[in-house]
Amino acid sequence: MNPFSPTRRRFIGQSACSALSSVPVLNTLLNLKLAGRAAAQEAPADYRTLVCIFLHGGNDSYNWLVPRDTDRHAIYSQTRSELALGLGDLRALNQDGGDGQLYGIHPSCAGLQEMFNGLGGDTSKRRAAFVANVGTLIQPVTKAQYLAETVPLPRALYSHSDQTDQWQTSVPQGLTQLSGWAGRAADVLHGTVNAGSISMNISLAGNNLWQVGNSTTQFVVTDSGALTFSGSDIGDELHPMRLKNAAHRSIIEENYASLMQQSYAQLTRSSIELQEFFLEQFNSYDDSAVGSLFPAGNWVAQQFRAAAKMIALRTGLGLHRQTLFLSFGGWDHHAELLETQAEMLVLLDAALAAFQRALDQMGLQDRVVTYTASDFGRTLRSNGRGTDHAWGANALVMGGPVQGGRIYGTFPDLTLEGQDDTGYGGRTIPTTSVDAFFAEMLQWFGVPAASMDHVLPNIANFYDVHSAVPPVGFLRP
Hints:
Layout lengths: L11 H8 L9 H14 L5 E9 L8 E3 L2 H11 L10 E3 L9 E3 L4 H8 L10 E8 L7 H6 L11 H10 L11 H13 L7 E3 L15 E2 L19 H13 L6 H26 L3 H4 L7 H14 L1 H4 L3 E9 L8 H25 L5 E7 L18 E6 L8 E3 L22 E2 H12 L3 H7 L22
Parallel strand pairs: 1-8, 1-9, 5-11, 5-12, 6-7, 6-8
Antiparallel strand pairs: 2-4, 3-4, 5-10, 9-10
Helix pairs in contact: 1-9, 4-13, 11-13
């Protein structure tokens, strides 16, 4: 098993039932097909997909995006000591606007360098940008306020589980009812732009909080499609799993006198039909035209290949808005940073670049925005082996709608004990809130201003949702 692969639990029954929580129960595969066709004909044509790749563990993003001008690189080198990357090792990022400073990207990221500078050398196709020093905030915080504890701070700031939840919920105070911001966006949009039978929130990486709403949740699949109880995804008719599934299917197809038993059987049967419908759609789509773009042996790239396929299937599924959740674990580099991160960035870079090239080749580049998220940033100072939990971090955003080739937000002063350091080994205080970062994508996705504070409860502390100026500026008007 790949050491960087996250544990990938699949709750097939739960996932399928969850997907039905926001849509009517359809009892037959024929009904599902007819509903998908009708939805494709009736719904609007402005397809949009938001893709999150979550880097579990806390990516050290200050060795991903690095100052390249002489003065700031000297500060970076002094602060990071033995962890610093040399000027000659960085891949140059040629900004087109942005903050006007010089930056480089990690040497493992040739694909993202091309996406930033221009796909195929064409500067009109700058597909990638960075948003600097993003993090969870309840309201803007200065160093003096942080040290004096005079403003509310996110709960359990340096905890993996808490910060993962906060990036996925955008509620750093914590929630009494757990829901994610993509789930709440689906609550707002599902009935107005999607008329299909499958949830607009599809996960390739198991259950997650990001896609859970109050009335909608995620539909969990694999990079091979949906797993089914009928066993149609297993070729051998005598395979023990297929035999067991067939026995289970026979039980739920019985008629029961008990209303509870009959209701359970009906719901489970409908769930299975939904999985079967999705798998049929998935298997029927030929993606060989772009398949060679995704490197073999790169399991992250295979997640993205499946994501590209699901975006291409949107019409048949009746989905005019989608969110897709992918994940890549193992970024908690306390014990060793340089070699391990370099190896992992090779996988991530190839996967992201292949995905964007595929979207461009399929003519879908303007329909998809992809972004990275992670638990938190990491300390600028070495612990002697790697780095520890911190706060602000740099995030990538990619796609045709992105005004690429730029660094957005405010890149922090990397001086230890400087104005942007909390004073604990180089934990940068975020200068851009996750709310502003997410709000820009949600505006593009179609969430109306009147619903924005429902999706992002703290947004008013950072941005006027009725403003004509975008929250950060990385998406085209």
